[in-house]
Amino acid sequence: MATYLDHLAVERGMAQNTLVSYRRDLERYIQYLTAAGVSEPAEVSPAMVAQFLAGLRAGDDGRVPLAASSAARAVVAARGWHKFLAMEGVVALDASRDVHPPSPAKRLPKALPVHEITALIDSVIGDEPRQLRDRAILEFLYGTGARISEVIGLDIGDVDLDQQSAKLRGKGSKERYVPVGSYAKAALAAYVVRGRPALLAAGGRSNHAVFLNARGGRLTRQAAWTILRSAAERSGVVSRVSPHTMRHSFATHLLEGGADIRSVQELLGHASVTTTQVYTLVTIEALREVYATSHPRAR
C-alpha cells in the first residue's frame, strides 16, 4: 500500500488531503481482506471486492453505512491499488476491474422563485459606488447565468453595452458570448459610469476589471459571496443563497419559460447537453407537483 501511495504522491502529484483519504480507505480495505483470511493481493477475488463495496453501503463491523459518494471514493482507492499491482506485475489480474463505484444520487439544483430573485436584487438601493456595484453583480449573475469566476474575471473590454453582450471565460479558458438583458444592462451602465470610477480612484492605479473592491482591486470570490449573503439577509430570503443559486435559477426559469435545452446549454457554457439536462428534472418536478394538486385523479 505504501508503494502505491508514494506513486500517487510522486508520479500523479495527488494532493495531500486526497492522499490522506486514500490511505484511510485502503487501510479499511486491507482490514476487511485480513478479516476474510487474505494475506496476499493475488488471493483477492472479484467477489471479495464486490462484497467490500456492499459492506460499505450496508455498514460493517459496527460502522455506519456510507453514502454513495463516500463509498465510491473508497472503491476508487481500492481499484486504483489493484490496477497498480497488476501494472507492476505483483498480480496477474486486476481483481477489481469489473467492480464499479456506486453512482451518487443526482442532486437537483436549488432554484429560487422569481419573486425571491427580485427581492434579492431590489434589496440593494442607493447611488453609492459599492451599492451600484452590488446591484450590477446581482443583475448580471441572474441575467446571464454566469459562474462567479466568470463574473469576477470580467474586464471592461469584455462588456459591450451597446450590443448588450458580454464575453465570458469559462472552464478550460473557453470563451463564449452571452446576451445581457435590459435590467442587467441598466445596472451595469449605472455602475460603470457612476460607481466604478470612484472605486478605481480609491486604488490609485489602473485596473481593467469590471467589478472592483473598495481599494480599486479586482473583486474576490469571497467578497461576491458576502454581497449575496447580505442581500439575502436584507431581503428576508431564508433559502441558502450562493452565486450558483443565481445560475441555477437562471437556467430553471429559462426552461420554465419555454427555452430549449440546447440554447440553455450554450448560455451556461456546458460542454455537454447531459450536464444541462439536470435542469429538466427540476421543471418535471414542478409539473408533477402542479399535477398532483390540480388533477382530480392524480392521487
TrEMBL record:
Subcellular location: Cytoplasm
Catalytic residues, chain numbering: 147, 171, 244, 247, 270, 279 (o-(3'-phospho-dna)-tyrosine intermediate)
Gene Ontology CC entries for this record: cytoplasm
Domain Core-binding (CB) positions: 1-86
Swiss-Prot/TrEMBL GO biological process terms: cell division; chromosome segregation; DNA transposition
SUPFAM superfamilies: DNA breaking-rejoining enzymes (SSF56349), lambda integrase-like, N-terminal domain (SSF47823)
Subunit structure: Forms a cyclic heterotetrameric complex composed of two molecules of XerC and two molecules of XerD.
Role this protein plays: Site-specific tyrosine recombinase, which acts by catalyzing the cutting and rejoining of the recombining DNA molecules. The XerC-XerD complex is essential to convert dimers of the bacterial chromosome into monomers to permit their segregation at cell division. It also contributes to the segregational stability of plasmids.
Protein name: Tyrosine recombinase XerD
Organism: Nakamurella antarctica
Gene of this entry: xerD
